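User: Can you help me understand a structure? I only have the sequence.
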Amino acid sequence: MIHLTLIIVDFLTGLLAAGAWALASAGGAIAAVLGGGFLGLSLLRKWRRRD
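Assistant: Let's start by predicting it. Here is the structure, written out as tokens:
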């Protein structure tokens, strides 16, 4: 019975770690998209102001 409990706890811990990793990588991707958009917008504004 203890072995089964350990397997379940290990499985849940693995799911939690995988979920946290997926959330962190998704957050990094969202930050990259927002940063790229912000950089593009600022470059566009500088380019339009130059004319």
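Now, to help you interpret it: Residues 40 and 46 are 10 Å apart (CA to CA). The chain is about 95% helix and 0% strand. Let me know which part you'd like to focus on.
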